[in-house]
Amino acid sequence: MAPFATIYSWPGNPRLKRAIVAANVNGLELSFPPFDMTTARDESFYKKFPLGKVPALETPSGFTLVESGAIAYYISASGPKAPQLLGSSTSPETQAKIQQWLAHVDLEFTTTLLPAIQMAIGRRPEDEAVKKESLDAVERGFKYLEGVLGENRWVAGTQEWSLADVALASFIETSYKLLFGREWRERWGNVLEWYERFVKEEGVKDVWGEITYKE
């Protein structure tokens, strides 16, 4: 049987964690062919994906999709765990809360911290003023998150973990590996407890692998 979908991207793209976890719990097989960013985006690729963006998804029927959030949503909605990942169709409030947190992760956390992350991996020149601004801004988000996770087992207030938890954990993984050491992690104890619990969940742990922290 053909895979549910093929995803084109460079190896280890952290933006794909959402899609991979969603596929895993939904029992959907994904194909990841070798992909070289410098050579694979040829004329045939641009014909399917005019903007040349990755990750990019293609199904056996010819359906194509780009943007990591859209890909994760599509995979989440395409299997039996859709109500858990995206919220039940009978509860628009739950669905909306999950979408709110997906937006928070992208806008309040990932985008805010991106300059500091880029400096940490050598893709942006060091600039202490910009780095400080980035870290100060994301601290506000952590303060809010710490309170939410002190009151809720899962970030969107759901009974089971959702796609919002996957997205948030992907951000936490990157930031705790590259930027935030032990003092920061211990400062936000509820966040750390939630993260270490989430990555041990069925359907998640075999995708996540070993946790690595910056000391």
UniProtKB/TrEMBL annotation:
<dbReference type="InterPro" id="IPR004045">
    <property type="entry name" value="Glutathione_S-Trfase_N"/>
</dbReference>
<keyword id="KW-0648">Protein biosynthesis</keyword>
<comment type="similarity">
    <text>Belongs to the GST superfamily.</text>
</comment>
<keyword id="KW-0251">Elongation factor</keyword>
<feature type="domain" description="GST N-terminal">
    <location>
        <begin position="3"/>
        <end position="83"/>
    </location>
</feature>
<dbReference type="GO" id="GO:0005634">
    <property type="term" value="C:nucleus"/>
</dbReference>
<dbReference type="InterPro" id="IPR010987">
    <property type="entry name" value="Glutathione-S-Trfase_C-like"/>
</dbReference>
<dbReference type="Pfam" id="PF13410">
    <property type="entry name" value="GST_C_2"/>
</dbReference>
<dbReference type="Pfam" id="PF02798">
    <property type="entry name" value="GST_N"/>
</dbReference>
<dbReference type="GO" id="GO:0005737">
    <property type="term" value="C:cytoplasm"/>
</dbReference>
<dbReference type="GO" id="GO:0003746">
    <property type="term" value="F:translation elongation factor activity"/>
</dbReference>
<protein>
    <submittedName>
        <fullName>Putative translation elongation factor eEF-1B gamma subunit</fullName>
    </submittedName>
</protein>
<dbReference type="InterPro" id="IPR036249">
    <property type="entry name" value="Thioredoxin-like_sf"/>
</dbReference>
<dbReference type="InterPro" id="IPR050802">
    <property type="entry name" value="EF-GSTs"/>
</dbReference>
<dbReference type="InterPro" id="IPR036282">
    <property type="entry name" value="Glutathione-S-Trfase_C_sf"/>
</dbReference>
<dbReference type="InterPro" id="IPR040079">
    <property type="entry name" value="Glutathione_S-Trfase"/>
</dbReference>
<feature type="domain" description="GST C-terminal">
    <location>
        <begin position="91"/>
        <end position="215"/>
    </location>
</feature>
